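Hi L.,

As promised, tRNA N(3)-methylcytidine methyltransferase:
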Amino acid sequence: MEAEEYFSKDFEWEDLKSEIENDPSFQYHLLPFDPSSSSAIRPPEEESNAWRKFHSRHYTGKFFKERRYLLKEFPELVSCGKGSRVLEVGCGNGSTALPILRGNENVTLYACDCSSEALEYAREMVDASNVASFQHRFHPFVFDFSLSSFPDWLFCSPCRKTSLGQSFPSDIKEAGRTLTGVPSKETSCCLGGLDFVTLIFTLSAIPLHMMPSALMKCFSVLKPGGFLLFRDYGLFDMTMLRFELDKRVGFCEYMRSDGTRSYFFSLETVRDLFVRAGFIEVELDYCCIKSLNRKKGKSMRRVWVHGKFQKPPL
């Protein structure tokens, strides 16, 4: 599968920004936010629990739509060579995993999520593809990067001494079963580090104050010169504008009725977070796409942030 040209400009973000800022009905989104007024400050474990419950309800059906645009947006996943290793953080039900596996037979994909139900479904989808190499190259494991450091076996040897990593059992279990793909104790504990880490609509799901630590963990498992590929909700996305005032729990941060949250990024916020974590900015821009709701006959303006960041080469 070859990656086609990536398209991201149905409209200009600055025009949308001007329109929102001049519309009185959206003014509450732009007001300063006093953190002490928020009742949504919770222990980190509760944040993860909300997403586990979400996936237990929604890991199949309409929530499983393959992100085929991924290889257009990140052609590096197609062109990388034999032995390349990718870690997908927050893989959910496999909607990103399958395009990556299809796009490049040289890739070994490690995928983690806090939800065992979502990972089980992802494994089912990979198995249902009936492509044997997919099954051998796909290694899911239950893990929440917002709570813990990545297991030692993801790190390259030079990084191990200075990384945030810590030892984990070689068999990571959830609900009484082992999710395959984790190196055994008998094998080398170091896989040589990762060529790519993907964060696809994952960072926005954790509170803003937890993001710096989470990004430093991603930085630590990459090889020198490795890339983090980022896509997430952008400021003034249609989804943000639909949130009502009582769902606002921070500046650009909202909580749904089921307890899951979303943050909507400006380019400045993304740049600051990644540079502070040690990354070099390679690409960063808004992706502004008009999406047609055929049932209602309405055009929806979606805004995402597209980014590529590199760990400095040695």
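The CA atoms of residues 126 and 135 lie 6 Å apart.

Thanks again for sending the construct details.

K.
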